[in-house]
Records
---
Amino acid sequence: MTPDVLDRAHVSNWLEGYRRAWIERNAADAAELFTEDAVYREQAFQAPFVGREAIRRYWATVTATQSEIELRYGPLIVGDAGAAVEWWVNLRNSGAPVTLAGEFFLLFAPGGQCRELREYWALTEGRVEPPAWWGGRDGKSPR
């Protein structure tokens, strides 16, 4: 990855690090994916988490009640300094099965860490598999 061009393989590796951190509920590893001054927008109408330490604290809190986490990605779109990807998660939250479907819009710093994450997601109770039209059902690549 050069300072001006984002490499698709780098984004895929970054996403794998994010997936691994979520599955392992490892807030420290998740925080290391971000720049020191990163902005993490988990909800569009709420204040973002700003800075690596705030992101680490958010992650430690939000994943504390989660278990049996299965995260899959849909097709990846990569631009000059940013990327977008859909994701699908089945997990247990406080023991109850839930499904989340969402999207990341990611902006990267020249060093390869994420400088801004914008996330949009929806949640439903129970375990729901992705619909037939959803890409990336295997979690690795689009269908």
Note: The helical segments are 8-23, 27-32, 52-62.
---
Amino acid sequence: MSARRQITVGALALLMALEGLRLMPYQDIAGVWTDGYGNTENVVPGRRITREKADADLQRHVQKFTQVVIDTLGPDVPQGMLDSFVLLTHNIGESRFRSSTAVAAYKAGDYSGACLYAMRYNKATVKGKKRVVRGLADRRYQEYNLCIAGVPHAHWTEIHGRERRYPDSIPRQPVADQWYRNWGRRLLGR
């Protein structure tokens, strides 16, 4: 029996940094009621939540979306791509992820294309019109960096005809290190 796959601590830290922690429910740019770390399920406007509930919701969502990505792409999805696509799924939802061009590209064997297609999800509906949102564009760029680091080296060389010019792994950022010291160990049970 193989060990259960999960996202890396750095990816979880990035997710928490991108979402931010909001204990009081608020409406996001698209008007969706949200609380905790981007939770949109069972949010009650005006009802403050605890940090423990926010952590539990995040843990539940990460486990759920990790399984969604593995079920959709297969158990051998590279770690960087798993991390990136879990963050993407947390933001856009399960059904949009499953029907995305990123998934289609991955299944067709175009791993670097899958990373690029995920960057298309940078828009939100604001006042009835779809528009590019700077925060989503920045988020997709961060996710792209995780994703492309997970593209198998041989595949990268075959597609681009050259070696990568940056390391295979992305170093953890100081924010991620600080988060891990404070909350990551407790949240991940380590």
Note: The first strand starts at residue 22 and ends at 27.
